[in-house]
Amino acid sequence: MDVIPSSQSDERRTVAGWGRIALLALLLSAPGLGRGAGRAWAAPAWGTPAPVAPGVAWAPAQDTGRDTTARIGPYDPHAAFDPGFLASPSSPTRSADGSPGPDYWTNRADYEIHVRLDTAARRVEGWEAITYTNESPDSLGYLWLQLDQNVRRAGSRSEKLAAGGRGSTALDADGGTTPAGTGGYRIDSVAVVRRGRSTRVDERTFGTRMQVPLPEALGPRGSSLRLVIGYSFVVPEGGRGRTGWMDTDHGRWFDVAQWFPRMAVYDDVRGWNTLPFLGTGEFYLDYGAIDYSVTVPRSYLVVGSGELLNPDEVLTARQRARLDRARGSDTAVYVRSPDEVGDPDTRPAGQGPLTWRFRMERTRDVAWAASPAFVWDAARIDLPGGKSALAMSVYPPASASDSAWGRSTEYVKGAIEIFSRRWYPYPWPTAVNVGGPVGGMEYPGLTFCHWRATGKGLWGVTAHEFGHEWFPMIVGSDERRHAWMDEGLNTFIDIYASEDFHGGEYAPKRDGEYAPGGGNPAREIVPTTMDPDAPPIESLGDAVTGAYRHPLSYFKPALGLVILREYVLGPDRFDRAFRAYIRRWAWRHPRPEDFFRTIDDVAGEDLGWFWKGWFLERWRLDQAVEGVSYVDGDPSKGALITISNLGRLPMPPTLRIEEEGGRAGSVRLPVEIWETGGTFTFRYASTRPLASVTVDPDHRLPDVRPENDRWEAGR
Ligand SMILES: [Zn+2]
After folding, report:
1. Cα 52 to ligand 1 centre (Å)
2. Which residues lie at CB < 5 A from ion ligand 1?
3. Which pTM was predicted?
4. What pLDDT score does 3 carry?
5. Distance CA 299, CA 321 (A)
6. Cα 402 to ligand 1 centre (Å)
7. In 3-state terms, what secondary structure has residue 690?
8. Tell me, what's the pLDDT at 153?
9. I need a labelling partner for 147 at 20 to 30 A (CA). Which of 266, 273, 355, 603 fits?
10. How many Å apart are CA 692 and CA 707, to the nearest integer?
């Protein structure tokens, strides 16, 4: 997900909150002003410690939070270069090089869904048939499903958490109060169908989870069953909770998501994944084909994930011809222009409701939007290998200007072409951007961006939401447990999308997700890295409060990857590894260690010191220049330069060295200089006395104390 600038949203958003926390962090980083002494950070389970390295694979740093020096260091080379890190052996499902193992499996969930939208009561009602295939080696005596709409039930966990005010729940995620009375799902019936026999079962609902006991266990390795569920729910007002409705000048508008009971994931690491939906932590879903139909009043248009199967029934001949023209057009073609909104001739003649049918292959979810107020335009997306897809946008007439949604389809096309070219081809036939009440939420092939987004903000949110098609829609990580694996990797690819789009029209990417102050990201991250209350990147999605969500799930991991790509490994080496990760884990469920291992494996570099320090721990970087002497006291024989690593995070240093008289040179040292200790002296072939030595002269690293980065003669 993401936000658009708060001025463009009717919801209180987190960007301003982050500014406040950054300021707070700056204040707290002053010596003597810290708080939260002795706070213990729970270490995420990180594989099994290798037998050869007793103790733990990695240990949480002691952090008093009390004084700056204690929070920066001391440097411990044995913690930084830890032979026990990522040392758990491979398994039949996950290989040591970061690939899926020879016995890797995922279960499959195919859906057939038929619903009717009661636009007056704002209710979605209907039924679904889930074909669930168990590819695991285990027999399953029951199934777990996700009832996300129940986050809105009175008395839900989310509501209770929200009352605590820490902003770790739906309230904060959605920027307002949870509307009461929408009540979540009403489950009318659940039946299990096997070998042609249908059995009604009594489901057990626990908040946003539903357990379906099976009359007979579902066997391993390819057994399947059908689950038929009748249900309904009332769509909540506004854009909260990633779904909602609003009234426009031209009728009601619905953005509808999490709209059918969805299978929880049974995986090789945790079995059933049953973390509740609290509003912040996003989703974890299996793949399959989803066939769905939505019945709406005839005046309504519908867009949805996947391909529209019955254009002949729901569009006019003129609209179908325009869509055909759009399939060959580099620029947006109106399927329905602003002037045509409300014109009865833009709907097929006849009486009664219409049913819109869609299908999407190889997907983990689908979402849709419906309204009589759609302006609709479309253009061709050019994909690698001569393939193409269709970019589309729908938005109300009020948003149709060229400074707003009039360029949405251009943005969709641009972003998808860039991501496809750089990383992995977009796999679906359509991509729809919806300008309705929901501001910044991604689904396969369809995104909700806010109808009031404009200009650079609309580009940014569109690129970001479509970036999610790669993480987590193609690479199916567990968003609820590892938010950075989709938000951080997505923010990282968005940085280069902004550089590539339209000659860098909106570059560099600087927004609420990445360097919100607009300056050097490596400097802007420092208050977050120094903040004693900031959790590690690798935290449960719901354990990162609103103020830290963008700094820690988006900005810090994205900057970490930029440092690896542009400073540590170089673009070619990094990009090959990053592409390999996408290829290896497309349509699968990677964990953080699969990502780390793949990058290490393809790049040929053990980056454990960085994965541990930046992603799992909250280590700070503090490189310093300690002093200069000369061989035999003679500058013409060479200078002896001493540098130190005072923070816990190591990093290969780059130095700029200037001699009296202006001769200058640059030195890059390998990270291994820090394996044996935090101080290192090296010889530099000077010809005259040195005037200055500067570490990280171009400010590319998040060094928390730049004041000790420079030595000058005579000072
Ligand atoms: Zn996002």
Report:
1. 40
2. 1-2, 487
3. 0.90
4. 55
5. 20
6. 25
7. strand
8. 84
9. 355
10. 14
Token pair in block for residue 453: 């987004």
Q: Which residues contact 555 (CB under 8 A, 6 or more apart)?
A: 491, 513, 514, 515, 516, 521, 524, 525, 528
User: What's the CA-to-centroid distance between 346 and ligand 1, angstroms?
Assistant: 35
Q: Which residues contact 311 (CB under 8 A, 6 or more apart)?
A: 319, 320, 323
H/E stretch holding 384 reads: none
Are the beta carbons of 692 and 713 closer than 8 angstroms?
Answer: yes
Ligand 1 centroid – CA 3 distance (Å): 8
Ligand 1 centroid distance, CA of 513 (Å): 9
How confident is the model over 481-527, as pLDDT tens digits?
A: 999 999 999 999 999 999 999 999 999 999 999 999 999 999 999 99
Q: Are 465 and 439 in contact (CB under 8 A)?
A: no
Give me the half-sphere count of Cα atoms (radius 13 Å) on the Cβ side of residue 94: 21
Residue listed under structure tokens 């040195």:
690
Q: Could you write out the DSSP letters of every residue in 49-83?
A: PPTTS-S-SS-PPP---SSHHHHH----HHHHS-T
Task: Please report the pLDDT score of residue 69 as a whole number.
Answer: 63
- Among residues 559, 553, 672, 655, the alpha carbon closest in space to that of 607 is found at 672
* Segment 655-668, tens digit of pLDDT: 999 999 999 999 99
- Name residues of the chain where pLDDT drops below 50: 4-66, 167-180
Give the pair of three-digit tokens for residue 575.
């990009």
β-sheet bridge partners, residue 693: 657, 711
Task: Name the β-bridge partners of 450.
Answer: 436
Quick one: pLDDT at residue 240?
Answer: 65
Beta-bridge partner residues of 172:
none
Cα distance between residue 345 and residue 341, in whole Å: 10
Tell how far the Cα of 484 is from the centroid of ligand 1, in angstroms: 9
Question: 490 CA to middle of ligand 1, Å?
Answer: 7
